[in-house]
TrEMBL record:
<dbReference type="GO" id="GO:0016020">
    <property type="term" value="C:membrane"/>
</dbReference>
<dbReference type="Pfam" id="PF04335">
    <property type="entry name" value="VirB8"/>
</dbReference>
<keyword id="KW-1133">Transmembrane helix</keyword>
<feature type="domain" description="Bacterial virulence protein VirB8">
    <location>
        <begin position="28"/>
        <end position="233"/>
    </location>
</feature>
<keyword id="KW-0812">Transmembrane</keyword>
<dbReference type="InterPro" id="IPR007430">
    <property type="entry name" value="VirB8"/>
</dbReference>
<protein>
    <recommendedName>
        <fullName>Bacterial virulence protein VirB8 domain-containing protein</fullName>
    </recommendedName>
</protein>
<keyword id="KW-0472">Membrane</keyword>
<feature type="transmembrane region" description="Helical">
    <location>
        <begin position="48"/>
        <end position="67"/>
    </location>
</feature>
<dbReference type="InterPro" id="IPR035658">
    <property type="entry name" value="TrbF"/>
</dbReference>
<dbReference type="InterPro" id="IPR032710">
    <property type="entry name" value="NTF2-like_dom_sf"/>
</dbReference>
C-alpha cells in the first residue's frame, strides 16, 4: 500500500516558461529586442540583394567581354560572270561598284524566272516571289502590264511548259544602265515540242544599296529592274 508523504502535497512545476512580471525594465527590453531583430533581418536582406546584384553585374560584364572578343562577321561581295561562276571577292564597303558581269548575270536570271514556265505551279510561284525583291515600283508596274497577255497558270494546268535559253546580253550605248537581252523559248505540250522562237527585251536597271536585313539577304548588290519591255522576234 502506497503511503502519502509530505511531498505529495507540493504543486507540480509548470513545463512552460514562466511569464515575466510586467515592469518598465522588461517592457523596454522587449521593445529593444524587437527593434534590433527587425534591423538584423533588414540588414541580411540588403546583403543578399547586394550579393545578387554583384553576381549579375559580373555575369553580364563577362558576357560583354566574351562577345567583344569574338571576331565580327565581315560581309563580302562575290562577283559572278554570266554563267554564275564566282569571280572577284571584295570586302563589302560603301564605295563598292557593282561589276557589269554581276548585272548581266542578274538580268539573265531574272528573264529566266519571268519567262520560264515549269510544270510545277509551286516552282512557278516561287520564281515569282524571288523576282519581287528585284523590282522598283515602276518596274513592278511595267511587268504587270506585260503579264496581262500571258497565261502561265493556265499553261501549267494544260500540261504545257516553257524552257528558256539566254542567247546574249548587250549594254546599250548612250543609255544609262539599259541592256538588250535576247533568249530562245521552247514550248512543250506535255512531251512534244510545240513551238520555238526568239525573244528580245530592253531592260533598264537601277542601282540602290540595300538598307534592310531582308533586302541585303535577297538582293545584296542592290540591282533593281526599273523598266522592261519584250517582244517576239520575227
Amino acid at each position: 500500500m502506497k503511503h502519502k508523504t509530505e511531498f505529495d502535497d507540493r504543486p507540480l512545476p509548470h513545463t512552460a516558461a514562466m511569464k515575466e512580471p510586467e515592469n518598465r525594465f522588461n517592457d523596454a527590453r522587449r521593445r529593444y529586442e524587437g527593434t534590433m531583430g527587425a534591423a538584423v533581418v533588414r540588414a541580411a536582406n540588403w546583403r543578399l540583394m547586394a550579393f545578387a546584384s554583384i553576381t549579375l553585374s559580373v555575369f553580364l560584364g563577362g558576357g560583354l567581354i566574351y562577345a567583344s572578343s569574338r571576331p565580327a562577321a565581315v560581309p563580302y561581295y562575290v562577283d559572278v560572270d554570266k554563267t554564275g561562276a564566282a569571280g572577284n571577292v571584295t570586302k563589302a564597303s560603301q564605295d563598292y561598284v557593282v561589276q557589269e558581269s554581276s548585272i548581266e548575270y542578274f538580268l539573265g536570271q531574272t528573264i529566266m524566272k519571268l519567262r520560264m514556265v515549269p510544270k510545277d505551279v509551286v516552282q512557278y510561284r516561287h520564281n515569282g516571289d524571288d523576282v519581287k525583291f528585284f523590282l522598283t515600283k515602276s518596274g513592278e508596274k511595267k511587268l504587270g502590264e506585260l503579264m496581262k497577255d500571258e497565261h502561265p497558270l493556265q499553261d501549267i494546268k494544260d500540261g504545257k511548259a516553257t524552257d528558256v535559253e539566254i542567247i546574249g546580253i548587250t549594254k546599250q550605248t548612250g543609255k544609262n544602265l539599259t541592256y538588250q537581252v535576247r533568249w530562245k523559248e521552247k514550248v512543250f505540250d506535255k512531251v512534244d515540242l510545240e513551238s520555238e522562237y526568239t525573244m528580245t527585251a530592253f531592260v533598264t536597271v537601277k542601282l540602290s544599296r540595300p538598307t534592310t536585313e531582308d533586302a541585303i539577304q535577297h538582293n545584296p548588290f542592290g540591282i533593281y529592274l526599273d523598266d522592261i519591255s519584250w517582244s517576239k522576234e520575227r
